[in-house]
Amino acid sequence: MAEDSKNKATFYCYWLMSLYGVSIVMIGTLVPELLQYFEVSLSEIGFLMTIQCFGGILALFLGSRFAEKVKKSLIIPIAFGALGLGLLIVGYSPSFIVLQSAFFITGFFIRITDIFLNAFVGQIHQEESGIYLNRLHMFFSIGAFTGPFYSGMLIKLDFHWQQIYSIIGILFVVSALLGCWFILPIGKMHQTQSPMNRAPLNFLEIIQDPKIWLLGATLLFYSFHQLSVTVWLPYYMEDALGASKEMANLAISLFWFGIILGRFFVSIIVKNQDPARLLSFGAFVGAFLLVVGIYSRDIFLTTSAYFIVGLLTGAVIPLAFTICYKIFPEVIALATTFLSIFLLSGQMVGPWLLGISAEIFTIHHAIFLTVITLFGCTVVWKLVSPPIASIPTKPALR
Question: How far apart are CA 56 and CA 50, in angstroms?
């Protein structure tokens, strides 16, 4: 019965993560509708993402203070339901100011949900955390791959953008309510387990370990890379290589399909492989292939290179969290919060810096930032000593 409850909770987290992925990326296909409806500029639409990141930053700081003092199995459905209500507010926004406020709310609860989903799955599957965290992030990738198709299909069916947000918001709220059956029972079982005698680490003790900073630097580089590719690859393909819009869209779809496959394959082999070695190898080979693809100025080679990069590096984020949980098993949520600060920082800076670079130089030169950041991941992981695999895994506090 205990194993059955754990499996139900795990699949429930996978479902939430896939919905989360859908909501994150679907806005790209709705930008024209938002511009027309609110009569605002492109920069104002872009600022919505900045506001959402500010909400996420607030969530990270609160998470670092309370992450280990609350029940993860209770916070997950509450935060996801609140995120659904935020999406409903987006769908019923009568003015742009209300829309901005709604994006701040969604940014806050997106980050709370993300922190506790990662921490909860890593905690209940601590002996095989690499496998299950990779699968969790694979489901996010599936959602991210599906998001543009969801919103694009409804637009073709003459749905208004507000209806599209309202539908996904309702689905979030219903899914949150299902948590009463899927995830709360396992939280009660963990609560009955005897506590550890070992005193938990505090935030200052965590940041004194250099490995947490190396993990953070890795996530900073990779989140810069991933979101920059997501935002700028289609434009680069059209502007610098002369690709058609269909081919440009195919390139970014293949990049995310590569990430899905990469997270799936790594979830299988990570049990018998050192996560740090996998992370370093994938980043280095991926960066090398990107250099070849970009220098070729060939549409097919460049598209292929980004697909293979997605395949080789898609597991960087779950692998980094897996390694973190080996180092800090007794304060998983707190360590997750700290790493998420780096993750969010890369997402805030990456697309903006690449866009500025394209204005100063050209998009062909600016796209090399997606290569440099992968080399950065490789260099950071060469600094990790001793090997992470030698760190003993200790049971987590419940």
Answer: 10
Q: Count Cα neighbours of 256 within 13 Å in the Cβ-side half-sphere.
A: 24
pTM above 0.90, yes or no: no
Give yes or no for a contact between 241 and 302, defined as CB atoms under 8 angstroms apart.
yes
DSSP one-letter string for 199-263? PPP-HHHHHTSHHHHHHHHHHHHHHHHHHHHHHHHHHHHHHTT---HHHHHHHHHHHHHHHHHHH
Give the closest residue to 305 by CA, choosing from 357, 245, 367.
Answer: 367
- Tens of pLDDT along 89-124? 998 988 999 999 999 999 899 988 887 887 788 778
Among residues 23, 147, 21, which one has the least CA distance to residue 85? 23
**267 close to 134: Cβ distance less than 8 angstroms:** yes
Domains along the chain? 2-191 (1.20.1250.20), 203-383 (1.20.1250.20)
Neighbouring CB atoms inside 10 A of 250's CB total 18
Q: Which tokens go with 276?
A: 């740090």
Determine contact, residues 85/108, Cβ cutoff 8 Å. Answer: no
Specify the residue for token string 């590569």. Answer: 258
Q: How far apart are CA 163 and CA 306, in angstroms?
A: 34
Whole-number Å distance between alpha carbons of 275 and 133: 12
3-class state of residue 311 by DSSP: helix
